[in-house]
Amino acid sequence: MIRILIAEDQALLLGALAALLRLEGDIEVVGMAPNGQQALAMCKEHRPDVVLTDIEMPLMTGLELAAALAELGLPCKVVIVTTFARSGYLRRALAAGVRGYLLKDAPAENLAAAIRTVHGGGRVVAPELALESWSGGADPLSERERQVLRLAGEGKSSADIARLIHLSEGTVRNYLSEAISKLNAGNRVEAFRLARDAGWL
Hints:
The protein is an alpha/beta fold.
């Protein structure tokens, strides 16, 4: 049996994915998490073979989850299923050790097949995403700039961000300024939009 854990913040989709995969004779769903943080805790407990995750989730994104699993040396293989065909996301996913990257509008049978391929040591990337990844520019942001810009895009002030990630307000402003400059944006809102659209957040 291939033991999988699913991380997805939309409850309806989480339930649908679990129900779909339970129809497969060789796949067992051992956990369902509404965000990356809970998924990480459940991975430590259940040690699934494969983690199926969305990218954009509260508390911890799917990409951050993949990076955390790799850092902890957990043997789970990660498959991302997302609505976002953005080259920046795919590049960051592959850099984080993700083994599969599919779009949510792919046929249902492709998902189970991808899980089996990844479990067997292979890699699966949706063809349209592979083509897209070559057309996008390189991600200019550092991890800290990305983190600060993401929080700014959620409407948080520099003071809020400083409290949340334990930096001084001046340091947060410096990171924002660097990100705005690198993206040739007029302000933090525009910088957030440009980075998000490129898949760099």
